[in-house]
Amino acid sequence: VLNVHDPTPRVVYVRALQPPPPMARWPGLLVRTHPGAEAIEPAVHDVRDELGREFVLREDSLPVVITRALARERLLAGMAAVYGGLAIAMVAIGVWALLAQDVTRRGREFGVRLSLGASPTMLYRAVTTRALRLTAAGISVGMVLTWMLWRVMASTIRVNGEGEPWALVAVTGLLLIVVVCA
Length: 182
Hints:
By secondary structure, the chain is mainly alpha-helical. Helix 3 (71-105) packs parallel to helix 6 and helix 5 runs antiparallel to helix 6 (165-181). It has helices at 41-51, 62-69, 71-105, 107-115, 120-156, 165-181. The model has no long low-confidence stretch (mean pLDDT 77). It is rod-shaped.
């Protein structure tokens, strides 16, 4: 079984008619070519036909083998993306509900302020300022926790690159839009 994460795979070369060793289920032939394998494909088929078609169980190109080897990782990444999207939606709904409850709870206070001469614009500014302060505090704590979680994950999982900073900016922007709309 091909493991694309193994930098030095173990390879055993055996004759086509020799039974495979117990560690390998099926013998295989790997043909490495330069880009443009279409030119060598007829020659490989000719060799296969000379040896006997009955010995070939399956033919796969390298992209197909790599796709099959990475299927589990792609499934897990897709599931993580779906759950991440659900988490963002839940956070947005929670922020919206928290701000709505805060405004409802302060309804009498707003009535008193309006009767004492405050304008609706001043009340809007006060609510928006409070909401943005709460959001800034939450985003700050969230970024610190995200950075810490990223460090832990990077130490346990082999990762290519430094991550996707645009995703963090996009989620932060989404939460700011939800707060302003709320």
